[in-house]
Amino acid sequence: MNGVLNEHSLDTLCAALCYAIGIEPPAHAAAPSPELMAYVDAAFGGKKADRLLMFNPDAVAEWLFEKYPPFFGGLGGEGDLKLPLRTAMPSVTPVCFGTMYTGAQPAVHGITKYEKRLIEIDSFFDACVRAGKKVALVSHPRCSMGVIFLEREIDYFLYPSWEKINAKAAELIVKDEYDVIVVYNGNYDGVMHKTGTESCEALAELRANVHAFKWLDEMVAECWQGHNTLLGFAMDHGCHDIDGDAGSHGLDMVEDLNILHVYRARPKETE
Ligand SMILES: [Zn+2]
To answer: What distance separates the 2 farthest-apart alpha carbons in the chain?
Structure first.
């Protein structure tokens, strides 16, 4: 790691996702990421994505990508967009996902510390609903992503097991009834806090996150051939080790703030 903070803030993502699916961004979103917009335009020949699958692993730092490339199983390879971003401060889960899906900094979206409470400002989910998009949010009921964006006119599938969460996401892909599916996986984060960021146990969960994404991507390739689909492997923040073989995040440091999202376009197959 070179120790330099990534230039573009995570707040540039939300409006770019809206651009990708052809809807107006939420009220407080920062200007969209030009890299993601250009990628979408090139991949879909100027058309929009009519399906979006966002896979949100928790705490998968950019430095993990750099240190363990084989564990990422080709993610970010040819055809994918690697999008380096700088997450919000403090670099904790509800703060960062708040910024990811509102496009606003914490002082604006209202979660400025580790606090799982409802975000009341306009969000990506509200923007989708206004545009008539059908949205499914698949998460753990006690994790931030199962809490902070409740009370929208979207469908929530909340399960206390990563296996059930990913199985439901796969089922929803097969049914093909949602325009936007957001899937949260917190298993790497949960284990790295207890055993350290590079313990065998934590790296196994990292691999599980990558496998889950690749599995869902294969389902998309199989079941959504009639759609322009954008997939995202999009974490909230990074992580670092602290004393006592434990991992942490939340600080103003490169390890916690630098994240690397990967986007993959699957254009509609021509008849
Ligand atoms: Zn997190």
So the answer is: 58
Please report where in the chains the tokens 């009639």 appear, as a residue. Answer: 226
Q: How far is Cα 235 from Cα 232, in angstroms, rounded to an integer?
A: 9
| Under 8 Å between Cβ of 261 and 234 | yes
CA distance 82 to 102: 21
- C-alpha distances in Å from residue 8, one per residue of 11, 23, 260: 8, 22, 11
Tokens 């994240």 locate to 259
CA 116 / ligand 1 centre spacing (Å)? 11
Contact 23, 17 (CB under 8 A): no
- The values of phi and psi at residue 139, to 5°, are -155, 180
Whole-number Å distance, alpha carbon 23 to ligand 1 midpoint, is: 27
| Spacing, Cα 196 to ligand 1 middle (Å) | 15
Q: Supply 267's token pair.
A: 């254009």
Please write the tens of the pLDDT for every residue from 33-76: 999 999 999 999 999 999 999 999 999 999 999 999 999 999 99
Q: Using CA atoms, how far apart are residues 268 and 139, in angstroms rounded to an integer? A: 28
For residue 21, the CA-to-ligand 1 centroid distance in Å is 25
Fold annotation for 10-266: Alkaline Phosphatase, subunit A (3.40.720)
Token readout for 201 is 């146990």
As a whole number of angstroms, the distance between CA 269 and CA 226 comes to: 6
d(CA 106, CA 101): 11
Q: What spacing in Å lies between the alpha carbon of 227 and ligand 1's midpoint?
A: 31
With bands split at pLDDT 50, 70 and 90, how would you rate the model's confidence at 244? confident
